[in-house]
Amino acid sequence: MTTSSAYSYSQRNIFDIKTLLEAVRFLIINSILALILLFLIFEEIDWAIFSFREKPNDQVIDNTSWNIKEIF
Question: Is the pTM of this model over 0.90?
Answer without folding.
Answer: no
